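Deliverable D5.2: sample structural annotation.
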Amino acid sequence: MNLRDKLRGLLVRLYARRVEGHLDHAQVPKHIGVIMDGNRRWAKAAGSTAAQGHRAGADKIEEFLGWCAETDVEVVTLWLLSTDNFDRPKEELVPLLGIIEDVVRSLAADGRWRVHHVGALDLLPPQMQAVLKGAEETTAHRDGILVNVAIGYGGRQEIADAVRSMLLDAQDKGTSMEDLADSVDIDMIGRHLYTSDQPDPDLVIRTSGEQRLSGFMLWQTAHSEYYFCEVFWPAFRKVDFLRALRDYAARHRRYGG
């Protein structure tokens, strides 16, 4: 590392401390959703493979959760694999699935997080299903941040699964279709989502400069604030995280005003 890079790093750290010092912890979001975008583009810019990009993105996750633990964040939802990702070439998808399994194992072994899967479990390979179930069972008793790992996740798929679950539940209880139609409301549908009994995201962060949700938590983000960051996910820094919190706090103070 040359002198210029060292000076740049020092200035970024000093700036991060300044932002953190002015952060109003009373305005920190309780639930943050993260669309971790840009792994492949980061790898391409670095002359690396897609797998190396995904690995670098995976390595960023626990660092990010550490930043969240320094605040009052209670729930983090990480979008690791969408339903659309299954259309990727096998030579990219297979290594990616292995990397995601490693992420889940690492989160479970860390000792600080509670791991919860959100997504269509039946779409995933049996080995990954077993890893997810094991992680949930191992971490269920912990008091740390609840980490939703969105794997095999799609917003439309979630709503379809919620409706299916609601219909099957009514069938099990012997509820007629007429009575079900009369009783359906927003709260009932919410109880059948993957994130049942969880608070909706207050803030959604998307990296890499893309300004769309791509189907992320369509139901739950109706009142969320969005923060779009130009940085690719593997290069996401604490100062970028603090800027997102500062931006959220500024908007939150204006809420309803």
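Annotation notes: Strands lie at 31-35, 75-82, 114-118, 146-153, 203-206, 225-228. The first strand starts at residue 31 and ends at 35.
The annotation will be released with the project's public dataset once the embargo ends.
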